[in-house]
Amino acid sequence: MRLSTRVTVLLVVTTALVAFSIGWLAVVISSRSELAAVDAPIAAIINSGANNQITALDNALNTVQANNYDVTLNVISSSNVATEIKTGANPLEVTPTMADVKFSLLSIREIPGFRIESMPIGGGDFLLVAASTLSVNKATHRLVRDVSLAGLLIAVFVVIIARRLMRSSLNTITQLIEYASAISKSNYEAALPKSTTTPELSSLQASLGVMVENLKKTIDVEKSSNAAMQRFIGDASHELRTPLTVIKGYSEILQNGSISDEQRQRAADRVEREVDRMDALVGDLLFLAEINEAPLVQGRSINVSEHITALIFDFKIDNPQRKFTSEIDDDVRITATDDLLHRMITNAFTNIQRYTPENAPVNVSLTSNSSRVHLKIEDGGPGLASGYGITPQRFTRGDDSRSRESGGSGLGMSIMADVAKVIGGSMKTEQSTLGGLAIIFEFPAVTK
Hints:
Oligomer: single chain
CATH class of the largest domain: Alpha Beta
CATH superfamily of the largest domain: Histidine kinase-like ATPase, C-terminal domain
Distance between the termini: 66 Å
Largest sheet: 5 strands, antiparallel
Number of domains: 3
CATH architecture of the largest domain: 2-Layer Sandwich
Mean pLDDT: 82
Order of helices and strands: HHEEHEEEHHHEHEEHEEHEE
Shape: rod-shaped
Strand order of the largest sheet: 2-1-5-4-3
Radius of gyration: 52 Å
Low-confidence stretches: 394-409
CATH topology of the largest domain: Heat Shock Protein 90
Helix content: 55-70%
């Protein structure tokens, strides 16, 4: 059943119940009022003769004549013989008996079509006063009919008004349902309906829009991840296949007994280099898998200033020809482990040493405020051909033209980014003021 139909049925039932309840109450009150009007003459007649049984009949007749009451009077003898001494406009259809007398003695009772009450009038006789309720029944039936008709009219009126007021909201709900159905069928280009009818529908529309946008982003990320995974598998296979091919080739050379000792040594050295390269590659992959499977690191407060100062000293010793500048704040602390921090910074320096000219300048700055720590390592090399600010991808080099003879596997940037994330920070790349690459790390500061 459609929502609009359910709402309509609910409104009709609710309105009808309310209208009929009010009408029933009006019918009851009106019926009681009408019956009270019927009972008043009966009570007046009975009260006129209640004090004296000898004059009770005369007093009753005088009261009826004086007030022109429309009642029927019957005298029932002790032998159960009824004598009608006054007939009303609507006389009794059945002759009253002593059973009726006992049933209504000094108490108004109701029998079909009449209200009756009786009293003793001496000598074992009784006077039974009966008043017709025909007019009351007609009035009640008429009121019930009018109330029922009014209830139906009110219900129809309320439904019409409600449908007019709810038409826009119901249309919006229908549009939202159609939009959700389109999204479920992967039609992500469907237009989100606008809703300004009610705050609730506006909130629903906004929430649905946010949900769909997040779904689109999730799908895009999943597609990108799948593509990256396929590329990763292909690149990893290629990276491992290359040294394996070299090892296989040189192994065949080593098996050749006709080569010279110099050739044999050169082949053995090359095999050893390729084995070392594979070992480093597998080690990097295992390291990345380990830190991504258990990303929450229980570190300690580390003085980054001292740590990076020591690494800068080592880098200067290994690269005396480079112009090196630095700006290091004192006693800057973050929560990390020595191994992860050392691996991250060493990778940055290794990339500079491997991929930039020997005379390319280098600048390192470490600053902090009350909440964040900023570490920037930049060089004057060729920079990234693939662009800045993007998330590093595994086995993706900054410059695809670089030869694998450099020993690079394309995992260095990814390792730095993952390490920064694991210890609660982030990494981004931008063009350096020196003309090359700037790697910027940001971490939560530790209160001293």
